[in-house]
Amino acid sequence: MRIGFVVLLAIVLGLAVSMASAIAEFGYSQTTPTLAVSALPLSPNIGPASRVVIKDAVHHFGEMYNSDVGRHTFILRNAGPGTLKLGQGLASCACTIANVSRQEIPPGESAEVAVEWRPVGAFGELKKTYTIPTNDPNRQSLVLSVEGMVLSEWRMDPPFLNFQEVGVSETKEVTANLLAYRSDKCEITGHTWENSKLADKLGFAYQAMSAEELAKLKPTPKAGVRLKCVARPGLPVGPLMQRLSLNTTLQKEPIPVPLAGDVSEEVSFIGYNKFDPKKRLLDLGTVVRGTAKESRIAGYRETRQSVGRRFPRIGPDHHRDDAPGLQGVEGSGANGGRGEVVKC
Questions:
Q1: 244, 260, 231: which is closest to 167 by C-alpha?
Q2: For the chain, which terminal residue's Cβ has fewer other Cβ atoms within 10 angstroms, N or C?
Q3: pTM score, two decimals?
Q4: DSSP character for 106?
Q5: Is residue 178 a contact partner of residue 186, using CB atoms and an 8 Å limit?
Q6: How far is CA 215 from CA 25, 116, 206, in A?
Q7: Within a 13 Å sphere around the CA of 229, how many CA atoms are in the beta-carbon half?
């Protein structure tokens, strides 16, 4: 019994020493991390209770531009017999900053919460909040809100000219609107293409939007120009790498308008054997005289729907490809036979 106890004690001591060494070497600690006090509600008063009162916890700025700064001061009052305590508030967005004038409010007195909202880059109807923990047993969190219709001084709708997918021999047209919300004058005074090598494959035109067209948009801009861009046949296959720079009356710097899309072949092929998609060559290899050989490829049009085609059997009597739209190129085979490399 004593021997077993000694062995057990030795094991326990060994584990303790190992853990101590690990902690010393790696700095490991099992201490439970503490949360910031401001993230938790405040404890109610032990004695008389506090009661926070606010006339209006929501302020609407109306229409404002995303370059503006909205400021509003909320007034909080302690209507309870106990001291009202306010914790560190938490904003729903980094664009909202608040400053509380005092953290403890005696009975019958008030405090100010000054809120500043900078909606940089925002657009549309928005709402931001600032939550303040309190020791009011019936209102442990006070939520203050600022709202507004945020407008840009100008914006592109959509933000780029999106061709999506266009065939290499296709002509395709896309449009976008340049809208002005602060100025009643929106004019284009010039434009340039970033990639001049593609300039002859792209067309650009614009026209001022009518009052009726502007009235259909919400929020309603004061002025606007409709842009039209045309992709012409001959663009290189692959992603469309181009950007249009507009000189306008809206700002001194040119406005960049990216072009998006993918230029594709009318039919793309995927081979199941030795197929080179870049050269569009399907290598059937060697065909022995008196035998036949068969292969398959799959074709995809712009709609991405398969238009698979089976090649004809290549045998002793087939020295060319009779399938429509395909060309046969004769070649030499081993053992005096004949083979073909089919070019798509």
A1: 231
A2: N
A3: 0.54
A4: -
A5: yes
A6: 70, 32, 19
A7: 28
Measure the CA angle with vertex 315, ends 313 and 319; round to 5°.
95
- How far apart CA 288 and CA 268 sit, in angstroms, is 30
Each residue's pLDDT tens digit, 10-42: 554 554 444 444 333 333 333 333 333 343 567
What are the pLDDT digits (tens) for 33-84?
Answer: 333 334 356 766 677 889 999 999 999 999 888 889 999 999 999 999 999 9
Give a three-class secondary structure readout of 60-77.
EEEEEECCCCEEEEEEEE
Does 38-151 match 154-264 in CATH topology? yes
Say how far apart CA 101 and CA 103 lie, in whole Å. 7
- CA dist 46 to 98, 145, 317, 318, Å? 29, 30, 104, 101
Question: Are 128 and 95 within 8 A, CB to CB?
Answer: yes
What is the enclosing helix (H) or strand (E) of 215? helix 211-215
What residue type is 303 in one-letter code?
T
Q: How far apart are CA 22 and CA 31, in angstroms?
A: 15
* Residues 154-264, CATH architecture: Sandwich (2.60)
Q: Distance between CA 272 and CA 341 in Å, rounded?
A: 15
Q: Give the start-to-end residue ranges of the domains of the chain.
A: 38-151, 154-264, 268-343
Helix (H) or strand (E) holding 282: strand 281-283
How far apart are the C-alpha atoms of 155 and 68, rounded to whole Å?
16
Query: What are the tokens at 13?
Result: 């001591």
Torsion of CA 259, 120, 61, 115, to 10 degrees: 160
38-151 placed in CATH 2.60.40.10: yes
CA separation (Å) from 176 to 10, 155, 329?
Answer: 79, 10, 48
